[in-house]
Amino acid sequence: MGVVSAEAIRQFQALMEEVDEEPLKTTFQNVHQGYLTDTCMRFLRAREGNVSKAHKMLVDCLKWRVQNEIDDILAKPIIPTDLYRSIRDSQLLGLSGYSREGLPVFAVGAGLSTFDKASVHYYVQSHIQINEYRDRVILPAATKKYGKHISKCIKILDMNGLKLSALSQIKMLTIIFSIDDLNYPEKTITYYIVNVPYIFSTCWKVVKPLLQERTKRKIQVLSGCGQDDLLKIMDYSSLPHFCREESSGSSQHSNSSANNCFSLDHPFHQQLYNYIKQQSLNYERAKPMKQGSVHVDLPEVMTEESQIVKTLESELQKFGKDNELANSVNGLKINDH
Fold this sequence. Notes:
Blueprint: H1 6-17, H2 24-32, H3 36-46, H4 51-67, H5 81-90, E1 93-98, E2 104-108, H6 120-146, E3 153-158, H7 170-183, E4 188-194, H8 198-207, H9 213-216, E5 219-221, H10 227-230, H11 267-286, H12 304-336
Parallel strand pairs: 2-3, 3-4, 4-5
Antiparallel strand pairs: 1-2
Helix pairs in contact: 1-3, 1-4, 3-4, 6-7, 7-12, 8-12
């Protein structure tokens, strides 16, 4: 749903004015940061303009934030540094630059992320911290720099390296996507998918019809590394390394850590990690810090995502069986000669 009526926004804001108990009121202020209408529009779009559903969604989000202390999550570093480096090497996500309109460009190594170096709670903690850093630091800084309110980002998903083994990662990705859909709705304006292997093309034909129309409109599958199309909306310096033709095409490895926005050595992750360390020092003065991962309540209800995951699992398994059969037939032919 693209357009939200002024009446729906008015009704939604009136309902939210009734939320006056602490700490829901405080966390709501941290969510909208003075842009109340924009926040209401995001949640309304996520619920197809239905005011009561959008209201329930936002209140549930606020309760989730309070119960899991999301307002304080940027004061809870993942330590030691070697553990965080392992997470960055297996959860490929980073900020590569900005579009010409000032939208932050986040790169996601969907094909080569393995999520196998830490517990699920560390990966969820890391993802939420990047979300919160985006909303509290990156987007306000972009708003100030470009002189207009910027509340959304662009994501570029690299499918290079996607294999049948991705089946084991789908549930982890589903948890992350569900957290985003339920608590950070409509924060991404467009998803660009690049370096698409045959296995993705096969699955995409089956999954695409399952997506809601508002989701379909956001997704663009680009040819090759996507460089030609992406240069229409951003400068070369903002392209992720895997969208540069001279790169090896790998999400994970680059000639320079300064160019690889997934690396802990990249300026974005250095700034993020230093910010969290500084916040933790301020936080510790108020109350002692617990060691270990932050355990965030994971989504129990997954609607669109659950259907997509089941379909993906089925298609990947079928794809694997077809490949095994083809390999067996080829082996028989070779032996016949």
